[in-house]
Amino acid sequence: MSLPDQLRAVLTPLLGDVAIDNLTRLTGGASRTTWAFDAVSDTRRALILRTGPPDDIHAGMELEAQVQQRAAAAGAPVPHILTASDSAADVGSPYLICDAVPGETIVRRIFRGLDDAGRARLLRQCAEALAAIHRADTSGVEVSAPDDLADWRARLDDIGDTTATFEWTFRRLAEQRPAPSPMRLVHGDFRMGNLIVDDSGLAAVLDWELTHLGEVYEDLAWFCIRAWRFGAPATLGAGGLGSVESFVRSYEDAAGIHVDRSALRWWLTVATLRWGVICRHQADRHLSGETPSVELAAIGRRVSETEWDLLDLLSGGGPA
C-alpha cells in the first residue's frame, strides 16, 4: 500500500473520508523524516507527518504527542496533534500527524524580517514558551530523567577520541556542579531552528524528540550557545535575539522563579560541551565512512570553535 493510501486509512476514522494531496517530503530534521500534505474532503486541511524508527535516544511518537499536549495545556504554542503511534503497522514506521502551522523556520530569514522591537518581542515569547513548558503537568507520563553531563561523557567515550579541552571541561564541571534544582519537563532542543515564527512572533515550538525531565537551566542554556545565534554577535547571546540577561529576566517574570546566574553559567558550559561532542560525533560518522557527507565534515570542523567557547566560559567570558 502506498503512503497516501496508508495516510488515508489512518485519517478516515478521524476526519471522515479524505483524499491525500500534495504529499511532499520536507528538508531538514536529523532524526525524523517530515512530510507535508493536504487531507481533502469538502475542505482542505494542511497537515504534517513525522516518521522515524525507535531508538534509545529519542522519545517515542506517542510520548512526543503526550508531552506536547501537556505543554499546550500549560500555554506553550505547539501544533495541534491529530494522532500518533509507536507502531510501524500503519505507515511503515512510528509516526505523528499534526496540523501544519504557517510561518518561517529558516533562521536567517527570520532574522532578516525582524527589527529591534521584533527581536525583543520574539525573545520574550521564547522565554514565555519555555516557562509554560516547564510548568506542564507530567503526572502519568513516562518521561525519562537522564543525567545530562554523564550522558555526554558516555557518548564521547563511545567515539573513542577526545581533546584536552573537552577533558579539562568535564573535570571542571564535575568539581563545580551546582546544587540540583527541581526537575521539570524540558524540551531538550529548544533553539532557533526548532521554532516557527510568523508576523505575530512565535507561532509554534517544534521537534520534541529529545524531551525529558531535567532542570530548567538545561533549556535556558541550550538556547544561548553560539551555534544558535547563526552569526549574530555575542551581545545577542540568547538565540541571536537579545542579551542572555534580558532573556533570563523575561523567563523569571513568566515562570515566577529566580534563575541562579552561577548555575546558568555552569549549564551554559555543559550545553557548549554537548554541542562540541555532537560536532565530534558528526565528524566521526563522516571519517569512519558510516555516512560520507560534506555537511557532517563541516559540522565536525566546528569542534575547535566549541573548544574556544569552552575556554572562554571557563575563564569567565561568554555571551552577554
Q: Would you summarize the structure shown here?
A:
With 320 residues, this protein is an alpha+beta fold. It has helices spanning 3-15, 61-73, 107-112, 116-134, 148-159, 164-175, 216-222, 244-255, 261-287, 294-300, 303-314; strands at residues 19-25, 33-40, 44-51, 81-85, 95-99, 184-186, 195-198, 201-205, 212-214. It contains eleven helices and nine strands.
Structure description:
There is one protein chain. This protein has two domains: 3-99, Phosphorylase Kinase, domain 1 (2-Layer Sandwich); 107-314, Aminoglycoside phosphotransferase (APH), C-terminal lobe (Aminoglycoside 3'-phosphotransferase, Chain: A, domain 2, Alpha-Beta Complex), CATH 3.90.1200. Helix 4 packs across helix 8 and helix 9 crosses helix 10. 39% of the residues are buried. By secondary structure, it is of the alpha+beta class. The protein contains eleven helices and nine strands. The longest helix is centred in the last third of the chain and has 27 residues, at 261-287. Helices cover 44% and strands 15% of the residues. The mean pLDDT is 94. A five-stranded antiparallel sheet has the order 1-2-3-5-4, with helices on both faces. The chain has a two-stranded antiparallel ribbon with strand order 6-9. It comes from Mycolicibacterium obuense.
